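Dear Dr. V.,

Thank you for agreeing to look over these. As mentioned in my earlier message, I'm a first-year student in the group and I'm still getting used to reading structure tokens, so any feedback on how I've presented them would be very welcome. I ran two proteins. I've put each sequence directly above its structure. The first is here:
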Amino acid sequence: MSGEALTKADREIIADIWTSEAAYENLVTLCDDYGSRFGGTPGERLAVEFMANRLREYGVDSVTVEAFPYQGWVRGTARLESVQPTAASFDCIGLPYCGTADIQGDLVFLGHGAPEDYAKKRGQIKGNLVMVSTQSPAQVRRPMHRMEKYGRALEAGAAGFIWMREEPGLLPETGSIRFNAEAEIPGVGVSREVGAALQRLAKKGPVRLRMVTGNVNQPMTSWNVVGEIRGHTYPDRYLVIGAHFDGHDLSQGALDDGAGAVVTMEACRALAKHKDLLPKSIRFILFPVEEIGLIGSHAYVDAHLAEMKNCEFMLNLDGAGRPGDTNLVLQGFGELQDVFESMCREMKHPLTVTNRISTYSDMYPFVLEGVPAATMMSVSGGPRSGRGWGHTAADTLDKVSPRALQMDALTTARMALRLCNLTENWPAPHKSRAQIRELLEAEGLLEVLKFERRYAFEK
């Protein structure tokens, strides 16, 4: 593509998205009409139909809705009570994949739950209820996910798990404690304020707690929504641009990740008008049930394994469209850093480009198959600032900035246009499974994957 044609298309894309309300209107529909879109809810299926129809309206070459089975979860009841030193009840919520249980045990608070905290209190943990904060420990150079903390508690012999939100506001924080599988021990979420009350109670002596949960784990079906623009010269070579559309069941999931879903759709809408400038294909994928195990993206990759060798790049938009600065995080493919930094300079739209592999969003199943990938996200606050409104009942539409949706959509479309036109000497070949394992090992994540029961490599 000539420089003149690129400049013309670039300006048309910017003007189109910057003057369109489509992204925000789509998000209003997803949130107000279909609720959380959590796996197994009526709103999930309605959202699938809505998004598929929208992509058809945008003029993509094909739209498919791909069904797959998985282990679903339905929220029931959850109670947390102190038995001693005094009788009291505490507000809590069940965490996804927690089943049915009625247990008692002493409270063992591990603060931020660094690995050494589990080792130091191993004797106290066995048979009791571990409470940890949502914040990652300062002494650990990588983020510590909820599932890792749960897995370490389970390995140490805990009978139950309490996930204490670090940020104030009487908001318990949800999140799955297993991926696509029933949890071995029950887990509940509590607000910062409830966690603080339990800590104060512990100053009077040992705290004996009763945890009662009644949730349902059962087989379900969900659906990936895939819209494809076929490349005019190399149709079998393709990029993937995707985001998950489900939120957690107790909120609208507007920021996490309805925003990312509509940014994906808006980039698709704009690029579909410029098919003649796309030598390679682009698949726009809206993934379900990410929140309980990256299940949609794993299902997609498993169903399309034979085609993965032709997937040149996967851009994950989980976290895009939120207020804050936009960052691009390469997933262990540092050879792409210069490519994206040069691209951003050319677009006169600086992004912070870093390189660090992660396992907690929909790019990971692609990375496992060696596909070069990155996540684009908007962040505010420091690296340990927590989820903000995410995973709480307060993740609602009023927190969304329509301008942030537009900005990240036009950035996505402009980058995709350029990536599609890199037809020779693609700088990032696929990596082998052994090379991906080495990247994960360098980040200290192989041990973590074992605690999370997600280890995908030969023993």
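The second protein is here, in the same arrangement:
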Amino acid sequence: MSDTVTGTALEPLRALRYDAGRFPLDEVVAPPYDVISPADREALLRRNDHNVVRLELPDTAQTAAHLLHEWRRDGALVRDAEPALWWHEQRFTGPDGLDRSRAGFFSAVRLSSYEEGRVRPHERTHAHARQGRLDLLRATRTNTSPIFALYDDPDGRPRAALAPAADRPPDMQATDGDDTQHRFWRAEGPEAVAATQAALGDREILIADGHHRYETALAYRHEQRERDGDPAGDQPYDFVLMYLANLHGEGLAIYPTHRVVMARREVDPRFLAAFAVRELPAGTSPAQVESQLNAIDPATVAFALWRGSDQPALIAQVKDTSTVMMAMPGAPKALRAIDAAVLEALVLAPLLGLDGDQFLTTDQVRYVRGLETAAALVDSGEAGSAFLLRAPTVEQVQAVAAAGRVMPQKSTYFFPKLATGFLLNPLAAE
């Protein structure tokens, strides 16, 4: 990091990385901590004694700090001599069965409170205690996993500056547990770094995934600056490890997250009064329901209701926009165009007797990413009904953020998740 305040939105990183000559990267990387189940953790622990899950989900924070020190001392993890930005390409098969690729870059991004408007959240999250993650950051003084964020640059200047590095063999590559192929290239030339800094200098950054990690990093920065007497110059803890993808042309794919109502409660027709409701023939499969739902103009709010394989599914399209406005007072037009937001306000809130904040903690609604899984919960009798949703478009996500608002929790499913363990970012001066 620089010795004085630069004012730049981002800086290249001196990353801490596994010695790929000693460890197959496929064996030591892991999914983000918040999607690792106890069984997944055990499998990762068995995969390799140096799997990053030992740092990311340790028995205690101090255990992680001890391991990190030990791995650095014996050369399992090595710090890059020079800072660099990292161009990253992923090839994957999406939940829809289509093969895709996504590109972006890794850097150290300057931390900024949400109130400053430089970095924005995109969906509502529960402000639950983050003490465990903060304790881990205090102990390790290292970002062990990246935040996934988006920026808006129609001219594609970062790609133009960084992607030429991909003309040579990658500096790192691996295939993770989801069969996503990762390839990384160092981009350390001053011209490429300067061009990328200039491109992001006046751009807002929108967090796609990792809100809690970002907020923990903010809390850590605040207490470290207080401890150090608020120094004038840039400090390593003023930045956070982040992956940035352009909203334009980088292969972004968003998939839906469905709402499954666990209570066996009939959906009263009066809750659907603001919608034109169409009944599909009994026996219509979940995939066929989804196909008909996706055929509706994205500008029209719509959802499907799955009540079991033995009952007709329903397709609902909003018809009464005045009712939507009354149910969502003060909500900007961009938010009233989001299927999940309208469903929550007009249907789920009165059906379940919940307000917006209560949806963050209730066990009455389960957020399910797989279409077949959502339907199966109803068919088995474990749940009462499933509201099937379409994925919001990138433009809709952008419009809500531009309006200064956030979407309901679990409104977006950016796939694939970013793997942990390729690049670590130490936050202590060395």
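From my reading of the second output: Confidence is low (pLDDT under 50) at residues 1-6. The radius of gyration is 23 Å. Does that match how you would interpret it?

Kind regards,
E.
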